[in-house]
Amino acid sequence: MLAFFCLAPLVLYPVFLMKVMCFALFACAFNLLVGFGGLLSFGHAMFLGTAGYASAHAAKVWGFQPEVAIVFGTFCSTALGVVTGLLAIRRQGIYFAMITLALAQMIFFYYLQVPFTHGEDGIQAVPRGRLFGVIDLANIWNMYAVVAVVFFGGFLLIYRAIHSPFGQVLKAIRENEARAISLGYDTTRYKFLAFVLSAALAGMAGATKAIVFQLASLTDAHWTMSGEVVLMTLLGGMGTVFGPVVGALIIITLENYLSQLGAWVTVVQGVIFVICVLTFRRGVIGEIASLIKKPL
Amino acid sequence: MTEIFGIPTQALFGQLLIGLINGSFYALLSLGLAVIFGLLNIINFTHGAQYMLGAFCAYLMLNKLGIGYWWALLIAPIVVGIFGMIIERLMLKQLYKLDHLYGLLLTFGLALIIQGLFRNEFGSSGQPYPIAAELGGGRNLGFMFLPIYRGWVIVASLVVCLGTWFVIEKTKLGSYLRAATENPELVQAFGINVPRMITLTYGFGVALAAFAGVMAAPIYQVSPQMGADLIIVVFAVVVIGGMGSILGSVITGFGLGIIEGLTKVFYPEASNTVIFIIMAIVLLIRPAGLFGTQK
Questions:
Q1: Which of A37, B42, B149, B212 has minimal CB crowding within 10 Å?
Q2: pTM of the model
Q3: Does the beta-carbon distance from A105 to B98 stay under 8 Å?
Q4: Which of B94, B108, B232 is the closest to A273 by Cβ?
């Protein structure tokens, strides 16, 4: 995968690849919660959107350097994750999905109304600035390198988390929560930690995305975005390490090619959802993993 | 002009009425969700799309076939209900043994397909639907002006909600349904065709959504997106009420509609978010919902 993202810009548009990496990190963060904690969040767009607005505002209005803006965006989504996590983990399963969806909708309406987001226009023309005050990010290759570092950093962090004792406990909770409790684990705390970590990384993706595309808009906070990340993860393979990356790559490619078709994109996404759920529940990577009998 | 708390009564009652109307739709939709969830253990994300289908069904019948409001009120729920039953038979049925979340994902996908198809066909803008001649006009109640159609929506949805409650809680058919909710295998062992009952229940829940859609058509415009945002509010209503009781979801639906209307009068900035804020508070105090029991 490292090789792919290092060599691919020779053939593919770097802007397209940066978009893929941002969404891949977003999907990986989401997958940490659903694939390993068994908690399906239908409101992850609120973290992407919040961090996007925060970093765009910090970079444009306050004149922060890009790395500080990204950290600030990540911090804001982490804080939001703490608040919403405390509420959402009080219920499980379907209720958890409905609660996160409703909370995200609330945040969306908030952004629709407050002045600093500029409503439908979004925060436009965000300066990319100079990394550490030295490296000019207006140069696309510098920007590409930064996005790649952010993406691989986040990915490795998730990889470490999954394979740590913390990750093992999460899996135990997903499989059988009552049993994990009886073994002495404070499952609420583990779920909360997973939620906040997922929110933070989703925020990191959103903050980076806002700097790359120089735009933070309502689209990123809308529930369709929450649905999209669910789709990427489902298609790639829930609970696999590489699945969300593949899912993000497929969905973003699809959207790029179908973008002239307007509302058909929604239809195609819906069809993929239905097919995945009915016949293909393990996702692309999950199916490959079961073919070669190795976890991926 | 008289005032209460510095608000003209006309505006206050006007918003209360809008709140009651919204509450009628919240109640009808959350009732349908609760009935479906009770037996199928699936949260029907397609509910908003099916509400929209009901409205479009009425719209198309009027413009293509010349069939008016009253027939639409009967036919549209049946057509959309049958459509729902086909979906249940073909797709949902395969998911009952799996994690409930797959049902949510499948119905979400279906909602995307339906809404996308209608947006391609009709565009995003709303289509007007005229009020039936018998229900046009309004009446001056002294303290406010009541358009007859709005009064009719409130009464009709109350009747339908209470009727549903009566059937489920007080009749023999309803007792089968409640028994199957508790323990489907046992009910099947007594010789009742549970799979057929599940299909019919889903059809009924969907028909309720379509009925709400037809009622909404003259008030809001008929548009492909009309159900998409509404369904999220209804989810919050369901979380607040808890899905344990039929009457509970009706009361919560109307109550939240009224609160939302009042918020529009006293603090308009929060009118979009008030239901979500109430949901957060309820979750802190009573995680199972006002009328729910935690399993």
A1: B149
A2: 0.87
A3: no
A4: B108
